[in-house]
Amino acid sequence: MALTSHQEQQLQILLEKQAIQELIHAYCNAADRRDQDKMRSLYHPDAIDDHGGFFQGLAMEFIDRLPDIQAPMEILHHNVTTVNIKLDGDYAEGEVYVLAFHKVKTDGEPFDLLIGGRYFDKYEKRDGVWKFSHRAVVADWVNVHNPSIVDLNSPIVEGSRLGKAGTDDPSYEFFSLLRRGQR
């Protein structure tokens, strides 16, 4: 059975949106694993990133500063929920809801920061690949626990793999296809 032209068009839209969804998820993984090579591959060279008080400017400069921005973060955990994407040829826009958990070390006790927010994204498909051309972060609500309530020494997780920032994360030993630095 051959597809109608309408079905082919709908299938193409679905494929384009899936590619953008994979880009969005790759961003979360790159941020949480502190994989700057992977993060760089997600943005066009002239892309803009607006992370409010942390940074506003060229995304590549933001990525250069990420090690310092992320240094006090003992845990980063980005979770994407609702994703709304609209396509117009090789340009698209997305409003992406995110829950971003941070355990932040300080000179005293660490504290937890849970942000409910959204990414306002602009994407462009260049040379057949969707990447961010502009990302702006919006905070809708914030929940702070000071001191932190995270307890990775609890007996309930004893013997479990524990996530870590960078190359010490157990995912790098476990996976052969999901590699560091790759989309």
TrEMBL record:
All residue ranges annotated as the SnoaL-like domain in the record: 14-135
Q: Name one Pfam family in it.
A: SnoaL_4
Q: Which domain of life is it from?
A: Bacteria
**InterPro entries from the UniProt entry:** NTF2-like_dom_sf, SnoaL-like
Spell out the protein name for this chain: SnoaL-like domain-containing protein
Species whose genome carries this gene: Ketobacter alkanivorans
